[in-house]
Design brief:
- With 255 residues, this protein is an alpha/beta fold.
- Helices cover 27% and strands 17% of the residues.
- The protein contains 8 helices and 12 strands.
- A 5-stranded mixed sheet has the order 2-1-5-3-4, with no helix packed on it. A 4-stranded parallel sheet has the order 7-6-8-9, sandwiched between helices. Strands 10-11-12 form a 3-stranded antiparallel sheet.
- Helix 2 crosses helix 5 and helix 5 packs across helix 8.
Length: 255
């Protein structure tokens, strides 16, 4: 008669926004999961659907561990997202050192969000022909935060800084990002070209007058020009809409 040998398992509990990645029956509760022999805790967490850049702290029986920790049978594992009001740098063994600046690279589905980030002054790389390999390499080599809705892309081992954008609506996406990375104080509107990400510089009207439409030349005196693509900007009707967007986003994302 065959004897059934129970497979080893561990107990998991995910907190806060990490529950977004779990099926409803596993959210906000402890559950057990069968584990592979000598499998890392990083692999176990990602097998459950949670990308490693979203994780800020892992506790096993109350002790902080790194992604390399090998899961043991009957471990009690607690997994936490980024804390917004608590500094856990000294405690966490998985949270990477914070970046000095909020610099981003975005996948092909987040073009509107890229425009919004540039309007708010953030260095944001975006092209509609980036491949996943390009995005992962740029994020790793240039130390940029990878924003994507592709959770598999965030699981790539070379990606350290990243965030899975939850909302489908750009007006909400920008608020998500500002809150997640606590960037409200870093907003510096209208410093970057929304088309190409180049820096904007004030330019004397006389030097660009021949490039301006007749009525623009007649009624406006203040201009900025992108130092990369040479696009010229002035405070026309679009400026009021941009200002309204910036004010709305800053108000909604305030701590």
């Amino acid at each position: 008669m065959a004897v059934l040998i129970p497979m080893p398992h561990a107990y998991f509990r995910f907190y806060g926004s990490l529950n977004d990645f779990l099926p409803p029956f596993r959210r906000q509760r402890q559950f057990h999961r069968y584990i592979k022999e000598r499998g890392s805790i990083k692999d176990a967490i990602e097998a459950l659907g949670v990308p490693h850049p979203e994780v800020a702290l892992i506790l096993v029986h109350g002790t902080s561990v790194s992604f390399d920790y090998l899961v043991q049978p009957y471990d009690c594992i607690s997994v936490y997202p980024q804390f917004t009001h608590l500094d856990i740098t000294a405690l966490s063994r998985v949270q990477p050192p914070p970046l000095a600046q909020g610099r981003f690279v975005l996948d092909v589905h987040l073009g509107k969000l890229a425009t919004y980030l540039r309007l708010l002054g953030f260095d944001t790389l975006y092209r509609n022909d980036y491949h996943d390999d390009d995005l992962a390499q740029i994020s790793s080599q240039q130390q940029r935060i990878l924003l994507t809705q592709d959770r598999g892309l965030l699981k790539r081992s070379i990606v350290t800084y990243g965030y899975a954008v939850r909302s489908e609506h750009p007006d909400i996406q920008i608020i998500e990002v500002l809150q997640r990375f606590q960037l409200q104080a870093a907003v510096s509107p209208l410093q970057r070209c929304p088309r190409c990400n180049g820096p904007l510089r004030l330019v004397d009207k006389a030097t660009i007058a021949d490039q301006l439409p007749y009525y623009t030349r007649l009624y406006y005196d203040e201009f900025a020009q992108c130092q990369h693509c040479r696009q010229i900007y002035w405070k026309g009707a679009h400026y009021r809409r941009i200002q309204a967007l910036i004010e709305r986003v800053q108000t909604a994302s305030a701590p």
